[in-house]
Fold this protein.
Amino acid sequence: MDHDDRDILNLLQDELDFIEKGGYGRSVRTPWKPTSAFQDSLTCINYADPSHAYPCESCHLVDFVSPELRETSIPCHHIALNRAGDTVEDLEARDNQSKTEEALKNWLREQIKRIQAQRSGQST
């Protein structure tokens, strides 16, 4: 897979559904290990692949990352999720799971709405 061939709208909708159903809560198998937004869901093209076979630049989420941050080790953690510019990295560093998930859900809803509007020919 040179580029993620999944539909970005479906990917974002699935991510939102995953979070709304408690997806980033502690794993039953590894409760001592914290989960990480995007990386620990099916949104990640390398989900459950410890070898990380696919480069992050193949993922749709990299399109939401500013160009100067696309070469970081986890580019999707540098997506600005709100007007304050908070990123997954910023929010996870504050260790506030509920605030991270709320910002992520709001960002996902905005992106889903924007993509749906674009596809229907409406302006946002």
Helices lie at 8-20, 88-93, 97-119. The mean pLDDT is 87.
